[in-house]
């Protein structure tokens, strides 16, 4: 395809391979307070998610235990008490209808969100890099074929196919793994395009030619010469993908094809909460707020990583320093 | 002549770098004047601050965070303190600038005539129609054929030389008193360069324009200006009338610079006797052809039109074959085919007498761009060691020893093994590239424009290194370059390429002194001479030829 | 209708059913109801007048508006405005509304001695919308059409009951011979010959398949675009396959021939495809034309009920109804460990019906059930509770039984449910059951299937899951269509849709079903259905969970709301907006 | 130009063919018997068999697929009862299993809603998104830019259904400024159409605006740093004229072209928004179809969406090529 359809092209281009060493990137990243704050939020969240069983013990609340006595059955099961039934036992109140503890369920939900988002991203990067490299370095016909498949993958209505796929797979297949697979397998097209484009431009660079002249095989060149240079754009893309995948997971759960109950997930909670916004606003705002903060934190961090990897932004508007050119 | 056209006093320009408050000094207390109608060249190597000075004359640093010190007056306007309106009147109206890259310097979305007209209307009260007429007029003046029609074309429909003419036309539009040309010919082929320089010269004579020429090429300056100002590190090293500076440079740096400039007329370092014809050629090419693309977009790169013979050549041990040609002549494509990076479309290549396909064993390459030729993420030692490892060498100590030996051999230090490319200068990187090429002990090295991205002083060092290595190791060299003087310096034989074919080939002295092909003659004539007198004679000769 | 389900068609069925309903008892909690004429909600005061436009805001479109294709209970709500049938529902509130009454026919039908032959005579002066007379030949043709594969849909009874019905392929393929078991001696008389005694035939004759279709006007699958009306309204516009349906008065309908339909409004404007939330929001705001709006298929959700709370004005506009329906846990006793009655009983003891009712939307939307038959007189409801679990389950007793069954260390089983968001066979109910059984040491793994897959699994006799959520609704208010398909051993279908999940084939039960079918005294039949229910219930072949309750809003300007125990929703033919 | 169109057309057809084949294959793996779905509740085995025969489900999957393709290209005939033959004109996508409506007709009916939604969002992001982007690029470092950074970050951090839900909650439930949105076709009442689509537009437009503001900003900055801008600055062209005359076109060309792509994607991609606001569009149709394994509807919608995406891609390239004559149509 042409110029435009080259997919998501993050600002970090390979054409400036001098993104700097890992340490420089790290230093630049640390200088951005927003990125640091986002990282802190995420670290806290990961910690909380990991410690979910601990909190369950601490509060004495099983995430799946019903409390029929805490909801008003005659009024549709709305939690008794104020703010969605907040009490010493139930720090963030309980779920309408079942009386399950919201705090512990939110923590367990975080595990799913994080697991699926990170897992799917890893799979996307893996598949995308493999496909992109093969398309760029393999035989011309193979390259075209992969390019075509990539185009199809990008054109596919991802959410819809994900829904369809989750319906096809046997119900006893582990759900979080299924989500990772579905999101990962359906959404690597962008990464593949990026890697292919970047590889093609890298391949024309002299140092790659020099490596070929030295008698290196394609695989060795890909591993030693290309992959390190692809790291920056791929990391940037991955950083953008994590929050996207988290939203996709939440969307699938929101549409009712995510993880299976009683496993809690934020999207699922939002899905059942959507009718409750007037009767029990806390039930909507808690998962919505958490999801928002998490996705935002990932996005901010991703943005920070992108800028750290591509420090050109700031130095663009300089006049009169055009390099002398010859040839 | 009450006031100089340009009067710079203690000009200082600092650029912000990295953290706030950190600055890099680009121009350091430069003072000079330019009288109306005179021409001054700012000459220097990269980083000397010459382009920054040019931009400062028009106040182009405003709003970029750069700090200016000292004063600059252009046509009576104090650039440093002028308000936005005064500055706008100055720009284009009093002083007009011609930039280096004519393609990117024009707006791709608008017709060239409209762009000129737009500039004209800013400085005059002309109607749209009058402005368009003026655009056609100046385009016609700079030698655009059929100017009325071509004014409606967009930049990409023009050739490089035409674009530069159009830029000059834009500069002329408002009848400025000063023309600032920042590397106006650097992106152009040598024959086109000569035409543009002639055009600038003619305009000066015709309109009495002042000219400030910024260039890295002393040759370009020699034929075009009255005075020369040699810059280094943001300050003036030497200034004076062009004849005097070129013939009797006073500053050591100027002398060094001039000595490094390759000349067509200078003495050649004696070459060792090349191997005799009886030797088997290290590389031999038969009727090579190569094209890119298909159908309408087919581009013939090497081999000329369909019925032509293709390209055949042979290089022997210890011999250097220079290949010269302008851009698009197919010289780089040919070079890549010789080492096997590109498959020939047809024809055969023999290395050491055997036909090869794909990467040729024993063939290496030195690339043009010192930035992209080294992997920025690997230490230079690893880059040099790469061919060794690829060849199956596993003994780490032996590899390290060999790489350190190579580093020493190309004039670097063994301790540089673990450094990364960005820690080196362009010349040093090119040395690393040479070391890498030497590592597998090749019999042939193809150098594709190995010095064209380097400053002249560095150029000289690198070419000297190459010659020395060849003498020592007896390698066959193919030296590809657009710069005829450089090729003359390093080659035994030279092949002149045009349109994918070798139009002339022979021993260097023969081809340079008695060119047989008219194209070769044109090329040689177009090369700027360091002698202002010779440049003037050549110019009038060219003008007669075209008259 | 039986299981409702998710597919749109099926859901449409449910809708029509619901629509079909008449007046229901108003819930005791609806104090404001007393003011209104019918006992349902609605503006009180002045008597209902003719005129105006009634807007129906629905979720499911009124698709396939062809009498051959509709699957209704009692002829449906909207369909019944256009299609008159031999018999119909009694349009009255509560239990009285569960009775069947004559419509086109002069009486409920005259059976022969063993109830295998039913004869009907048409009233005088019956006309189609074009003024031409309605004949019994058209009724015969209408029924024959429903056998055509092109016009799929509808209930299976005609096929099962009529002689030759199982092989008949409809009038388009029979070479003009017709179905011999329907005899039309003259234009006013029609006789049905059945394979076996069916005392409840008058109930069947309420379904839209018994509506007359003039052969000359039959346009096959396109008939649904403009079916010929025999009722008080005719189709003025039908777009999007019933997504919007505009009905206008049929001037050729003679109210003198029709005692049931009041037909107050001049126009009925049915708008569907709306989200439940939107429907309820519009009805509660009730502004502009929405003041004269009702819904026939959308319940108030739990959150909306929570919100209505103490708002008296809103509460007064909520109609409460009961449709014969049961949601239950089904067992397949051919699958271990459910072959062990003690295990099934243990589960019956362990179930926490409070959690389940809460999951179904709370006590306003569901009533805990221990009997299979709904708690309505018409079904022959007889209370019983063989495995008393109390309000929140009896895990101790359950553990004891498990121990006896040899599962002292607990037990792991799989519960199959659907992923539909219907609060009936959905994940919420399944997790509530899961939690309750956990207390009795039973680990429940959940297997959630998409609706179609779920239905296919539970209807597949060869592959029925061992333990799953199921539900059943009545095609008419009687024990027959409730118990026979579920427990009659001869109705086990091995390569089609099987509803006898337990695959019970008990000769005694079969014989009793046959015996009751012979009764044409429906009250007597009711008692015996109730007794049969109790007898089967003791075998713990299923665990009844709850009977759903319908809570629906009407607009501020809606009068004469009648909700019968047949349909559980207000009857459109009774509603007035002036 | 002709070559370009032909090549794009060929590629597009291949993509669509592949798409339909994938969907077909996928759905035959899915559990669920279409005949039973089409037949409805309580069908007996004979009826199901008849329906299966009528739908041609007894043939092998490839045969069915070929017949489907034939229908798309040349139309198909179906038996409609009463001697009626239903002719389904090309492009015939078959009949829905669920309610045996012609899929083509169904899609045509749903398209306006989706189109309305996408159109409003497009207008919002072109006006607000691109406008803000330009503004913040011109006033670098100003308040607009800072605000924009925050808003765009927040936007990328919000799942569409959360914003939609919160908007519904605030605007409809608490403030009661608007009634609950119900889709009203433009033809019925343009004013109601707009009012009812306002929230969905805002929801969708917000996200796209944020994205486009960011995109426009960086694109404009990039253009402003180009050499030709420097040329005109050096000839005394004022900053405003630089932006409006020389930067906007280059900066906005890729943005506009990308808009075409996004518009195409939105034809199928607004599943969540349609779902949340109950807009009877393609996305909702698709989700409903997938849930009940209604193959003809799903294939139909996917093909429609695919076509939209492909057309949008081609339009984008054309727009881009028209805007930037340097780009050859490749």
Report on this model:
The complex is a heterotetramer of chains A (327), B (547), C (578) and D (330). Chain A is mostly helical and 327 residues long. Chain A contains 12 helices and 2 strands. Chain A starts with 21 loop residues before the first helix and ends in an 18-residue tail after the last helix. Chain B has helices at residues 50-57, 84-94, 112-123, 128-141, 147-150, 160-172, 190-207, 218-222, 242-247, 252-260, 331-339, 380-390, 396-409, 426-438, 456-473, 484-490, 508-513, 518-526, 532-546; strands spanning 6-16, 23-34, 39-44, 67-74, 77-78, 95-98, 178-182, 210-215, 227-232, 235-241, 283-292, 299-302, 311-315, 320-325, 346-351, 354-355, 363-366, 444-448, 476-481, 493-498, 501-507. In chain B, strand 11 and strand 12 form a beta hairpin. The longest helix of chain B has 18 residues, at 190-207. By secondary structure, chain D is mainly α. Chain D has 13 helices and 2 strands. Chain D has a two-stranded antiparallel sheet with strand order 1-2. In chain D, a hairpin with a 5-residue loop joins strand 1 (76-79) and strand 2. Classes of the chains: A mainly alpha (327), B alpha/beta (547), C alpha+beta (578), D mainly alpha (330). The interface between A and D is large, with 47 and 64 residues.
Proportion of strand residues of chain B: 15-25%
Q: The CATH topology of the largest domain in chain B, please?
A: Rossmann fold
Order of neighbouring strands in the sheet with most strands of chain B: 6-7-8-3-9-10
Class computed from helices, strands and strand pairing of chain B: alpha/beta
The CATH architecture of the domain at 325-548 in chain C would be: Roll
Major sheet size, sense and barrel closure of chain C: 5 strands, mixed
Oligomer state of the chains in this structure? heterotetramer
End-to-end span of chain C in angstroms?
34 Å
What is the mean pLDDT of chain C? 87
Strand order within the widest beta sheet of chain C: 8-9-10-1-11
Radius of gyration of chain B: 25 Å
Report the strand count of chain C.
19
State the low-pLDDT regions of chain B, or none. Answer: none
Query: In the CATH classification, which architecture of the largest domain in chain B applies?
Result: 3-Layer(aba) Sandwich
Distance between the termini of chain B: 35 Å
Name of the top-level CATH class of the largest domain in chain B = Alpha Beta
Number of helices of chain C: 16
CATH topology of the domain at 325-548 in chain C, which one? Dipeptide-binding Protein, domain 3
CATH 4th-level superfamily of the domain at 325-548 in chain C: Dipeptide-binding Protein, Domain 3
- How many helices of chain B? The count is 19
Unreliable stretches covering 5 or more consecutive residues of chain C: 1-39
């Amino acid at each position: 395809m042409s110029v435009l359809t080259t997919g998501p092209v993050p600002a970090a281009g390979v054409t400036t391979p001098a993104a700097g060493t890992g340490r420089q990137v790290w230093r630049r990243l640390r200088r951005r307070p927003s990125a640091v704050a986002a990282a802190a939020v995420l670290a806290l969240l990961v910690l909380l998610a990991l410690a979910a069983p601990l909190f369950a013990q601490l509060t004495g609340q099983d995430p799946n235990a019903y409390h029929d006595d805490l909801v008003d059955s005659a009024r549709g099961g709305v939690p008794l008490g104020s703010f969605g039934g907040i009490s010493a036992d139930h720090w963030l109140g309980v779920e309408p209808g079942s009386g399950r503890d919201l705090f512990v369920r939110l923590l367990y939900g975080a595990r799913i969100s994080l697991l699926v988002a990170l897992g799917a991203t890893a799979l996307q990067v893996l598949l995308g890099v493999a496909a992109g490299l093969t398309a760029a370095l393999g035989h011309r016909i193979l390259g075209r074929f992969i390019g075509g498949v990539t185009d199809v993958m990008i054109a596919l209505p991802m959410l819809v196919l994900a829904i369809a796929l989750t319906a096809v797979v046997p119900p006893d297949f582990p759900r979080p793994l299924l989500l990772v697979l579905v999101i990962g397998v359906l959404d690597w097209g962008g990464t593949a395009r990026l890697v292919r484009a970047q590889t093609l431009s890298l391949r024309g660079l002299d140092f790659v030619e020099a490596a070929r002249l030295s008698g290196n095989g394609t695989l060795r060149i890909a591993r030693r010469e290309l992959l390190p240079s692809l790291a920056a754009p791929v990391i940037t893309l991955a950083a953008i993908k994590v929050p996207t995948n988290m939203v996709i997971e939440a969307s699938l759960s929101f549409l009712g094809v995510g993880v299976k109950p009683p496993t809690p997930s934020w999207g699922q909670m939002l899905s059942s909460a959507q009718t409750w916004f007037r009767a029990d606003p806390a039930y909507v705002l808690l998962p919505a707020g958490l999801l928002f903060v998490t996705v935002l934190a990932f996005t901010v961090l991703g943005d920070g990583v992108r800028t750290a990897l591509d420090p050109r932004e700031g130095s663009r508007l300089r006049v009169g320093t055009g390099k002398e050119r010859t040839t | 002549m009450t006031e100089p056209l340009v009067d710079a006093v203690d000009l200082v320009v600092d650029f912000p770098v990295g953290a706030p408050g950190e600055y890099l000094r680009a121009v350091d207390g430069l003072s000079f004047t330019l009288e109306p109608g005179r021409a001054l060249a700012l000459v220097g190597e990269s980083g000397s601050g010459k382009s920054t000075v040019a931009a400062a004359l028009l106040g182009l640093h405003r709003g970029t965070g750069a700090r200016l010190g000292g004063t600059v007056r252009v046509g009576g306007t104090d650039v440093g303190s002028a308000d936005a309106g005064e500055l706008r009147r100055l720009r284009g109206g009093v002083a007009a600038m011609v930039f280096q890259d004519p393609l990117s310097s024009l707006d791709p979305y608008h017709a060239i005539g409209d762009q000129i007209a737009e500039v004209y209307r800013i400085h005059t009260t002309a109607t749209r129609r009058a402005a368009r007429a003026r655009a056609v007029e100046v385009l016609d003046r700079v030698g655009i054929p059929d100017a009325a029609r071509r004014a409606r074309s967009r930049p990409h429909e023009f050739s490089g030389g035409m674009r530069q003419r159009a830029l000059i036309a834009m500069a002329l539009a408002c009848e400025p008193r000063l023309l600032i040309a920042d590397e106006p010919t650097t992106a152009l082929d040598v024959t086109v360069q000569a035409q543009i320089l002639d055009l600038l010269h003619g305009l000066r004579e015709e309109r009495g324009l002042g000219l400030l020429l910024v260039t890295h090429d002393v040759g370009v300056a020699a034929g075009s200006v009255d005075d020369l100002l040699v810059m280094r590190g943001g300050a003036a090293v030497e200034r004076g009338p062009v004849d005097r500076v070129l013939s009797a440079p006073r500053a050591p740096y100027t002398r060094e610079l001039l000595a490094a400039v390759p000349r067509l007329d200078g003495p050649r370092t004696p070459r060792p006797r090349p191997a005799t014809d009886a030797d088997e050629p290290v590389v031999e090419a038969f009727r090579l052809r190569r094209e890119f693309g298909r159908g309408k977009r087919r581009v013939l790169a090497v081999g000329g039109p369909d019925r032509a013979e293709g390209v055949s050549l042979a290089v022997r041990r210890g011999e250097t074959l220079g290949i010269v040609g302008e851009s698009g002549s197919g010289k780089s494509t040919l070079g890549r085919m010789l080492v096997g990076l590109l498959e020939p479309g047809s024809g055969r290549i023999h290395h050491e007498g055997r036909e090869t396909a794909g990467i040729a064993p024993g063939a290496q390459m030195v690339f043009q761009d010192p930035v992209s030729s080294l992997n920025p993420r690997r230490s230079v030692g690893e880059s040099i060691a790469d061919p060794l490892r690829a060849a199956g060498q596993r003994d780490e100590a032996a590899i390290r020893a060999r790489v350190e030996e190579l580093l020493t051999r190309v004039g670097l230090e063994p301790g540089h093994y673990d450094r990364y490319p960005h820690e080196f200068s362009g010349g040093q990187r090119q040395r690393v590239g040479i070391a890498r090429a030497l590592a597998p002990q090749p019999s042939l090295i193809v150098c594709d424009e190995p010095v064209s991205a380097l400053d002249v002083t560095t150029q000289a060092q690198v070419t000297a290194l190459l010659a020395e290595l060849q003498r020592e190791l007896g390698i066959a060299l193919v030296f590809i370059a657009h710069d005829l003087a450089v090729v003359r310096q390093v080659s035994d034989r030279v092949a002149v390429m045009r349109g994918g074919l070798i139009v002339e080939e022979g021993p260097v002295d023969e081809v340079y002194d008695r060119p047989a092909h008219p194209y070769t003659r044109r090329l040689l004539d177009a090369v700027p001479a360091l002698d202002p007198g010779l440049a003037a004679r050549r110019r009038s000769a060219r003008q007669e030829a075209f008259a | 209708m039986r299981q409702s389900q998710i597919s749109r068609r099926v859901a449409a069925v449910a809708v029509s059913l619901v629509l079909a309903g008449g007046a229901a008892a108003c819930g005791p909690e609806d104090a404001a109801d007393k003011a209104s004429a019918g006992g349902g909600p609605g503006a009180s005061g002045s008597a209902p007048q003719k005129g105006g436009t009634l807007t129906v805001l629905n979720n499911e479109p009124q698709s396939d508006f062809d009498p051959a294709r509709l699957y209704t209970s009692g002829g449906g709500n909207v369909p019944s405005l256009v299609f008159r049938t031999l018999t119909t529902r009694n349009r009255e509130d509560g239990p009285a509304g569960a009775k069947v009454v004559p419509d086109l026919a002069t009486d409920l039908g005259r059976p022969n001695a063993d109830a295998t032959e039913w004869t009907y005579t048409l009233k005088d002066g019956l006309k189609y919308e074009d003024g031409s007379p309605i004949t019994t030949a058209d009724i015969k043709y209408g029924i024959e059409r429903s056998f055509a594969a092109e016009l799929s849909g509808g209930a299976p009874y005609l096929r099962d009951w009529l002689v030759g019905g199982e092989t008949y392929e409809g009038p388009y393929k029979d070479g003009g011979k017709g179905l011999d078991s329907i005899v039309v001696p003259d234009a006013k008389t029609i006789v049905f010959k059945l394979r076996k005694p069916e005392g409840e035939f008058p109930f069947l004759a309420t379904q839209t398949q018994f509506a007359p279709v003039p052969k000359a006007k039959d346009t096959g699958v396109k008939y649904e675009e403009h079916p010929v009306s025999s009722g008080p309204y005719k189709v003025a516009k039908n777009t999007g396959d019933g997504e919007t349906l505009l009905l206008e008065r049929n001037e050729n309908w003679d109210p003198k021939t029709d005692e049931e339909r009041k037909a107050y409004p001049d126009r009925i404007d049915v708008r569907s495809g709306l989200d439940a939330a939107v429907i309820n929001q519009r009805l509660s705001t009730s502004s502009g034309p929405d003041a004269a709006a009702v819904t026939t298929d959308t319940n108030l959700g739990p959150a909306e009920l929570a919100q209505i709370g103490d708002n008296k004005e809103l509460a007064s506009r909520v109609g409460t109804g009961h449709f014969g329906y049961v949601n239950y846990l089904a067992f397949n006793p051919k699958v271990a460990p459910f072959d062990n009655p003690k295990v099934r009983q243990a589960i019956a003891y362990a179930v926490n019906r409070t959690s389940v009712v809460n999951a179904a939307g709370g006590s306003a939307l569901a009533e805990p059930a221990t009997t299979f038959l709904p708690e309505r007189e018409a079904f022959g409801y007889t209370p019983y509770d063989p495995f008393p679990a109390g309000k929140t389950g009896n895990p101790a007793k359950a553990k004891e039984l498990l121990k006896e069954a040899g599962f002292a260390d607990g037990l792991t089983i799989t519960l199959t449910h659907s992923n539909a968001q219907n609060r009936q066979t959905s994940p919420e109910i399944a997790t509530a059951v899961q939690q309750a059984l956990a207390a009795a040491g039973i680990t429940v793994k959940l297997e959630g299937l998409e609706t179609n897959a779920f239905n296919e699994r539970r209807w597949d006799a060869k592959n029925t899951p061992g333990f799953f959520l199921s539900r059943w609704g009545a095609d008419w208010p009687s024990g027959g269509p409730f118990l026979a398909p579920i427990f009659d051993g001869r109705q086990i279908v091995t390569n089609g849709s099987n509803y006898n999940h337990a695959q019970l084939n008990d000769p005694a039960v079969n014989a009793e079903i046959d015996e009751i079918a012979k009764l044409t005294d429906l009250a007597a039949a009711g008692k015996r259905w109730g007794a049969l229910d109790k007898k089967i219930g003791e075998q713990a072949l299923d665990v009844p969970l709850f009977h759903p309750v319908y809570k629906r809003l009407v607009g501020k300007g809606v009068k004469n709301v009648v909700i019968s125990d047949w349909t559980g929703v207000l009857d459109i033919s009774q509603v007035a907006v002036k | 130009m002709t070559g370009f169109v032909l090549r794009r057309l060929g590629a597009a057809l291949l993509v669509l063919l592949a798409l339909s084949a994938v969907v077909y294959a996928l759905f035959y793996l899915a559990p669920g018997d279409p005949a039973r779905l089409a037949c409805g509740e309580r069908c007996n085995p004979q009826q199901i068999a008849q329906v299966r025969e009528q739908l041609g489900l007894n043939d092998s999957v490839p045969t069915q697929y070929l017949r489907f393709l034939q229908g798309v290209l040349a139309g198909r005939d179906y038996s409609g009862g009463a001697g009626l033959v239903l002719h389904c004109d090309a492009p015939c996508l078959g009949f829905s299993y669920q309610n045996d409506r012609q899929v083509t007709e169904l899609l045509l009916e749903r398209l306006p809603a989706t189109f309305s939604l996408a159109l409003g969002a497009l207008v919002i992001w072109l006006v607000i998104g691109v406008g803000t982007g330009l503004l913040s690029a011109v006033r670098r470092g100003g308040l607009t830019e800072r605000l924009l950074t925050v808003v765009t970050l927040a936007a990328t951090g919000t799942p569409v259904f959360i914003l939609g839900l919160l908007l519904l909650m605030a605007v409809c439930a608490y403030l009661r400024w608007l009634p609950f949105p119900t889709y009203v076709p433009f033809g019925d009442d343009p004013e109601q159409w707009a009012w009812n689509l306002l929230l969905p537009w805002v929801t969708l437009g917000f996200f796209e605006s944020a994205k486009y503001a960011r995109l426009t900003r960086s694109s404009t900055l990039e253009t402003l740093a180009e050499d030709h801008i420097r040329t005109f600055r050096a000839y005394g062209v004022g900053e405003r004229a630089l932006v409006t005359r020389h930067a906007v076109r280059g900066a906005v060309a890729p943005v506009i072209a990308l808009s075409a792509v996004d518009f195409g994607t939105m034809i199928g991609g607004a599943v969540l928004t349609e779902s949340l606001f109950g807009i009877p569009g393609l996305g909702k149709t698709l989700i409903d179809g997938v849930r009940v394994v209604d193959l003809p509807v799903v294939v139909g919608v996917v093909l429609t969406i695919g076509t939209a995406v492909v057309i949008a891609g081609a339009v984008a390239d054309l727009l881009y090529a028209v805007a930037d004559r340097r780009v050859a149509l490749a």
